[in-house]
Each structure stands twice: as C-alpha cells, then as structure tokens.
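Record 1 of the preview.
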Amino acid sequence: MAPRKAGHVVRTISEAARAAVIVEYSVSQSVTKAAAAAGVGRTSAHRALQAVGAIARPTPIYPVALAREAVRLHDEGLTQTAIAERLGGPSRAWVGEQVARAGRSRTQSETVELAQLVRHGRDYAPLRRRAKELRAKGWTLKRISIELGVCGHSVKRWLGLQGVPVEYHYWEAPTVEAAARRARRRRVMALWMAGRGTREIAQAVRASRSTVQNDLRAEGLLERRPRRAA
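->
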C-alpha cells in the first residue's frame, strides 16, 4: 500500500462490522450493499474486503511494446511523468518499474539536471562542474555564486549532489558588534563593486585599509597576495 500523506485520517471499523461486511458481500457480491447492510462507509467496506482477499486489486497489463516505448522515451530524456502522459494509459509508477527493469534508472544528480532543463530550458550541468572545480581551488560559495551568476543555495545544492562537503552555518541572533560588522561589510562590498579602491573605501567606512581588505577576502572578492621569498 502506498504511504499516506501526513495528516490523513484512516477510519477503522470494528471486528463485528468487518465480519458483517464479509458475510453480506458473500451473499450480494456488491460492496455498496454490503456496506449499507453493515452500516459502514463503502470505502471502509472495500478496504476490509481487500484485506481478506475477497476483492483483488486490479492490475493493468500492458503490452511489451508499450514497455519498450517507455524505455525509449526515457533514453531520449523525458521524465517519468511526461512518459506516462504521452503513453496515455500507464501510471508514473508503472513507467518507473519498466525503466528499473531495463536498468536505465537515473541518479539523483541526473534527475535534478533533467528536471531543471525541462523547467527552465537551460542546461546547468556545465555550471555544476565549474562550481566543483572552483570549490576545489578554495573559492568561497559567495564568490562561486557571483562568478556563475546563480544564487548561493543553488551552489550548495550542486556541490552536495556531487559529493563535495559543504559546511552549513546555522543562524544565530547577532550581537551589536556583529550587526555593525555585517553592515560595514555590506557597504565595503557595495563600494568595491562600484569601482572604489581600498584606501578610498577605508576612509568612507572609517576603518583601516587592512580591515577593508579582510572584508573583501572574506567575501571572495580579493585574492591574498603571495608572500615574497626571502
């Protein structure tokens, strides 16, 4: 039986009512009449009869050619939902079963890529590979998101799908000092993106030049210069 949605209430009937449903159905062969005679709902009566095997769940049988067509459409890149809609009869679960039998199931990463390609008409696979390469070079998530032109949540999800560990920072109520530091950093970033130099930014935010440089490095906007060899 498929898992029920959260909050779904299943009404159960007593053993006496269940026995009455079975007896009445054996006489009338009608679920509606058996439910009315036992004083229960038709759905409850139907479920009770299925539990004892009195009513078999109908299992649709489709031709082998339809299963091959489902696998072919899957290889072309269609989702299981799209395949079921195109075939017109089978369910999405049936399509998934045929694809699994043929050994063509997609990985989670491939499924996400295909869904985004269908939804947005854009192939994000090159961006995912590029994000992994930049992360391996030590780039921050914010710098990667700016470079690729996507949000930070997408970068985190892409790296996670590729097995790249990503450290998540949980939100905490900021202190007064932390709030002031974040406000200064946002202003530093805005001035930097406007083309200002570090000395000019330092004068504008009333901080030292090294503080401005540290803020820019923390946001991945400024590379740290290598030390000169002695």
